[in-house]
Amino acid sequence: MHLLVVEDEQTLLQSILEYFAQEDFICEGVVNYASAVNKIEDSVYDCIVLDLNLPDGNGLRLLQYLRKLKKDDCVIIISARNSLKDKIAGLDLGADDYLTKPFHLSELNARIKALLRRRSQHTSDILIAGIFFIDLAARTATCDGQKLSLTKGEFDLLVYLVNNKNRVVSRQAIAEHIYGDQSDNIPSFDFVYSQIKNLKRKLKEKGHDDLIQSVYGLGYKLSL
Ligand code: CA
Questions:
Q1: Pairing relationship of beta strands 74-79 and 57-58 according to DSSP bridges
Q2: pLDDT in tens, 140-178
Q3: Cα 7 to ligand 1 centroid, rounded to whole Å
Q4: Which string of b and e fits 124-141 if b means at least 16 CB within 10 Å?
């Protein structure tokens, strides 16, 4: 599970990140509006924990922007503003839940898990896009009805590209999506390059030579 925490209070941010890392989430944290915008433009998260009062912007605007991008990452607002008006505004803009500060991390955890459970009941485990039929639960994929034999990394990469089809995704975004924040420690993106290369080769074997394009200096695009 991939979690983004947007919170400018460093101590709270750190404790949330540490808690959820232990729960086996891949966690990323940002402390302001501008970095949060970059993260949501580049990646897809299972859940975003969003503070409303940020030094350079309002979390509600970020939520609006997320929906404008047609992304449906789960969002749980954490805020000290406990007025009914703010809660309603947040929920109206498409937040999935609202937790008033201060709270126990175990409550945040329970709420996030409840959201993700509800979400997985609603969304199908099957992803169909163009020629691809992907079973996310069984982790199998076919292209034009032909089975693709993919490694774990190639499968995650394909799902990520399909979810971001017809858009350019950067190597950085791919690395972060597949490896989380650990990608900061990897000196080069050679591994992304080699996984892209392998995936392209496997698609070519099925007769699809040009689905994944390299966009010079920017990244890759899957056209469907
Ligand atoms: Ca704040």
A1: unpaired
A2: 999 988 999 999 889 999 999 998 999 999 988 888 777
A3: 6
A4: eeebeeebbbbeeeeeeb
Residue 104 shares a structural domain with residue 149? no
User: Closest Cα partner for 78 from 119, 24, 122, 19?
Assistant: 19
Residue 68 Cα to ligand 1 midpoint, Å, equals 23
Residues in the chain: 224
Across the chain, which distance is largest between two alpha carbons, in Å? 58
Specify the DSSP class assigned to residue 93: T
Residue the block writes with tokens 């989430």: 25
Q: What is the CATH number of the domain that holds 133?
A: 1.10.10.10
pLDDT one-digit tens code per residue, 66-118: 988 888 889 999 998 777 888 889 988 889 999 999 999 999 999 999 888 88
How far apart are the CA of 81 and the centre of ligand 1, in A? 10
Rounded CA gap, 160 and 157, in Å? 5
> What is the CATH number for 93?
3.40.50.2300
Same domain, 19 and 115: yes
Alpha carbon distance 179, 174 (integer Å) = 8
pLDDT of residue 121: 67
CA of 39 to the centre of ligand 1 (A): 18
How many structural domains is the chain composed of?
Answer: 2
Residue 87 and residue 110 share a domain? yes
